[in-house]
Write a structure and sequence with these properties.
heterodimer, A: mainly beta, four-stranded antiparallel β-sheet, 54% strand, B: mainly beta, six-stranded mixed β-sheet, five-stranded antiparallel β-sheet
């Protein structure tokens, strides 16, 4: 059974640009969550999608957005990139009502 | 509020037991988790415990939960060099489902031969 797949694994962008990251959950999982990991702030929750609807949201500015498609794949977008957006972005998927959340390998975004 | 704290570093010798500690503040949390992160990798779910349990054992891993003190620990028996990694505890606050996890700062475990 394939795990959570995130693409791309690495990304370098210039300040001011925008970026889209993709996450394919484990087959059958309809909940997808996104997290940002930085050395300074640690792991922080961005948002969660279930059945194409945002169900939970963390404390991030509106430049961070996401969406989920009917096949449960999710994308997150960051507009007007800032140097501080450089981070490892992790996606997790889970079955509805189940406590386990399984993470992908992450996308490492570097903003220069 | 939600806040999870861990010590930053633990060093043990191969074959010893490791105990990683965590304190949390949200008494309404439904589940508490331990994740492992190796360099350049994502998070691997090791184990989790429901908030009404005191202990859970899974092979070399033992989780202890003290609800009164809001203290969670992970014991790794017979620690191996392959256990060297960063270990995160996390809680899932009530009413947010299981998908909004609040993570601790992580404990870096170094296992020496």
């Amino acid at each position: 059974k394939a795990g959570v797949t995130q693409t791309p694994r690495y990304l370098i962008k210039t300040r001011g640009q925008q970026v889209t990251l993709s996450c394919s959950p484990i087959s059958g999982h309809r909940s997808v969550s996104w997290y940002q990991q930085t050395p300074g702030q640690g792991l922080q929750f961005l948002f969660e999608y279930f059945s194409e609807t945002q169900r939970n949201k963390g404390n991030f500015p509106g430049r961070f957005s996401g969406r989920q498609f009917s096949n449960s794949r999710s994308e997150m977008n960051v507009s007007t990139l800032e140097l501080g957006d450089s981070a490892l972005y992790l996606c997790a998927s889970s079955l509805e009502g189940q406590a386990e959340a399984f993470f992908g390998q992450g996308t490492r975004l570097t903003v220069v | 509020g939600e806040d999870v704290e861990q010590s930053l570093f633990l060093s043990v010798r191969e074959g010893d037991s490791s105990v990683i500690n965590c304190t949390y503040t949200d008494s309404s949390s439904t589940y508490l988790y331990w994740y492992k992160q190796e360099p350049g990798a994502g998070l691997q779910l090791l184990t989790y415990i429901f908030s009404n349990m005191d202990m859970k054992q899974d092979q070399r891993l033992t989780v202890l939960l003290n609800k009164k003190d809001k203290h969670l620990s992970l014991r790794i028996a017979d620690t191996q060099t392959g256990d060297s990694a960063i270990y995160f505890c996390a809680e899932s606050p009530m009413n947010t489902g299981f998908q909004k996890l609040v993570f601790g700062t992580g404990t870096r475990l170094l296992v020496s031969p």
